[in-house]
Amino acid sequence: MADPSPSALPPVVIYHAETGHTFQLAVEGTDGSVGTLSAALEPATGIPYAHQILLLDGEKLAEDRSIGEYGLPARDRPIFLFSRRSLSRNASPPERQAVPPFELEVPTELAPAQLPRPPLEADMPPLVQALLDYERRFCLHLLQARTVSEVGGARLAASSQCMHELVVQGAAQRAAAANLRSFAQQLADRYAEFEAACAQVVPQEAALVLSFEEDVGALRAVEIDEAVCALEGWAHATLLEACGEEKLRQWLRDCQQTTSSLVAKQAQFQVEWHELQAGVHAAEVNGSRASQPPAEVDARLRAAASVRAQQEELVASLAADCHEVRLLVDAQLTAPSQATQLEACASLDSKNSCHTSDKLPRLRQLDDELRVAQDAAAAAKHEASLQLYHRLRAISQLQSGIAELRNKLHLYQSLLGRVHTYCSQLQLMRRLPTTYHACLEEVLTRQRVQEATASQIRSTAEAVAASREVEAARRDGFMREHGALLPRGLPTLSAILQARPPYVEISASASDARLMELSTAIERTSGSRLSLGRLSAVGGGGGGGGGSAATRRTRAATTAAPRPCTTRRCSWWRGSRRL
Fold first, then answer.
1. pLDDT at residue 309 is higher than 90
2. Strands 12-16 and 79-83, how do they pair?
3. Number of domains composing the chain
4. What's the whole-number mean pLDDT along residues 48-64?
5. CA distance 568 to 242
6. How far is Cα 485 from Cα 71, in angstroms, rounded to an integer?
7. Are both 131 and 56 inside the same structural domain?
8. Closest Cα partner for 19 from 100, 95, 102, 101?
């Protein structure tokens, strides 16, 4: 989809948080990167590229992403610009900005170009001269009023600009608080996962500690089969000895120590987390309070707007008087009338007195009120800048605290992982007896599978050997019939035809032989234990002598006589057979 034309795109609006100033940057498309935007802001704001922090809706903008990915440009979504230098610990508080002086320079006389009309003849009637004098006075009064009014307008505009910047700073504080909340929420999610994992692992560790001696006793009660002992080179052993009792107890001690350290760190982290949450909540509350200018200053600004309206009314009144006297002068110059001149001079004299004693002083009084409002707005703006300075530093410290807690949580999660590993190792103790017996059964199962496989291989080998014998007889018959007639000049062909059919060798690996030996020994010892159990049941109840002499002889014979193993089977697996 093509980007809109540059003329259809609104500018990107950037608010400088520390000053409240507004900047607008024209963009040619939505595919420009945020980094390009920051580079364009550097000469305009004086903030170096590396020190800029751009926030949009509480989210920090990534330099490598395009502005279109953030839905920019948009008129109702300004970007807030923060400077890293103002957030550093050694940053100094903002200095109070000088209030624009707007000093009144009220003219005391008209310049030649400002005269209402060119000079007339000196022999004009005295009453006409008086009217001309009133006209010049009224024009001067209007000029003075307009000068005062223009300064009043500038004062009101400066006051409104201060209030606008104050509102921008409040919005910047809310944006910083929203970014803080987002950062804190990420840590809150990770902390919730950590707490849930601890709630599972810590009780599990306590249960393993309570059942440890019972689990050790269960391992001690399982004796390793004689065949396995012989395979490992032991005379006698239990499953506990095979595992290593001291190693298991060391695992338990390590698990207890690590869990104790984890519980202590968890409690300490919980206290620090609650303190951090209180700080984040306070930052959010302060941000909401900074959304509007102070009520007193806002009321004074509204009053200043009313004062400015009064100034404009006075200027309009003086402009009307000036226009009236101009019309009178024009009429008397065209058709002089002494009666009219006398009446006009009397009327204009009262108006001139009203100008000098009421309207012009009132304009100056209103200007003083506007000056007071301007000073109050500037003071409120400076107070807001100081407040923003301290709150942004507090938010920056909270951000650092969140980063520090995040690093701690990462370490505690590794500690939790160690506890989980120890618990997993200790839990294996309960499964070891079942696993051991399953391993013995697996050995026997594999032997049975190999015996079946060997039988299939034997049948296949015998079939292959028979096929070879048939082929060998056929080749011998061919050579008896045609071999003597082969020319001596074809020795290579003769050698090929005299070759015998290939042999096939099938051999068993050393591991297969060891598996066969182990399975045979296990079957023998298992059979001995089973026979002893039957004899004890038949001749049992005879006391500590272990039964009659015949029973003891039968038991000894059964123990000494292993399960027969045919030579054919053993030779098949231990050696190799050539077919």
1. yes
2. parallel
3. 2
4. 91
5. 36
6. 96
7. no
8. 95
Of the candidates 388, 296, 396, the residue with the CA atom closest to the CA atom of residue 19: 388
Q: Do 314 and 396 reside in the same domain of the chain?
A: yes
Same domain, 242 and 363: yes
Question: 276: which 2 tokens?
Answer: 């951090």
Q: How far apart are CA 544 and CA 541, in angstroms?
A: 9
All residues at 6 or more sequence positions from 389 whose CB lies less than 8 Å from its CB, including other chains = 18, 86, 91, 93, 94
Six-digit token string for 140: 């001067």
Tokens of 69: 């990915």
The 10s digit of each residue's pLDDT in 511-560 is: 677 777 888 888 877 665 544 444 344 444 444 444 433 333 333 333 33
Q: Which residue has the tokens 């000056």?
A: 371
Q: Which value, in Å, is the radius of gyration of the alpha carbons in the chain?
A: 53
Within a domain: 75? yes
- Domain annotation covers residue 263: yes
Examine the pLDDT at 217 and tell me if it is beyond 70. yes
Q: What are 60-111's pLDDT values in tens digits?
A: 999 889 988 888 888 788 999 999 888 887 878 888 777 777 777 778 888 8
**Domain ends where: 403, 435, 467?**
435
Same domain, 191 and 282: yes
What pLDDT shows up at residue 292? 63
> At which of 435, 453, 478 does a domain end?
435
Least confident of 199-203, 224-228, 344-348: 344-348
**516 CA to centre of own chain:** 59
Residues 19 and 142 in one domain: no
Helix (H, G, I), strand (E, B) or coil at 156: helix
Q: For residue 407, is it within any domain? A: yes
On whether residue 578 sits in a domain, the answer given is no
pLDDT, tens only, 409-444 = 999 999 999 999 999 988 888 899 999 999 999 999
126-210 and 295-334 are packed helices; what angle lies between their axes, rounded to 10 degrees? 160
Query: Model confidence over 140-149: pLDDT tens digits?
Result: 999 999 999 9
Q: To the nearest 10°, report the CA torsion of 508, 514, 519, 520.
A: 90
Q: Domain holding 213: CATH number?
A: 1.20.1270
Identify whether the C-beta of residue 344 lies closer than 8 Å to the C-beta of residue 327. Answer: no
Coil, helix or strand at residue 336: coil
Identify the domain containing residue 162 by its residue range. 125-435
What is the structure's pLDDT at 529? 56
Range of 363-377, 472-486, 528-542 with top mean pLDDT? 363-377
Phi-psi region of 65 (alpha: psi -120 to 50; beta: other; left: phi over 0): beta
Q: How far apart are CA 82 and CA 399, in angstroms?
A: 14
Same-domain status, 77 and 157: no
pTM above 0.85, yes or no: no
Q: Which residue has the tokens 């199962």?
A: 445
Nearest to 94 by CA among 21, 148, 147, 1: 21
- What's the CATH number where 70 sits? 3.10.20.90
Q: What are the distances in angstroms from CA 569 to CA 217, 343, 514? A: 41, 151, 14
- Is the same domain home to 213 and 305? yes
Domain identity same for 135 and 187: yes
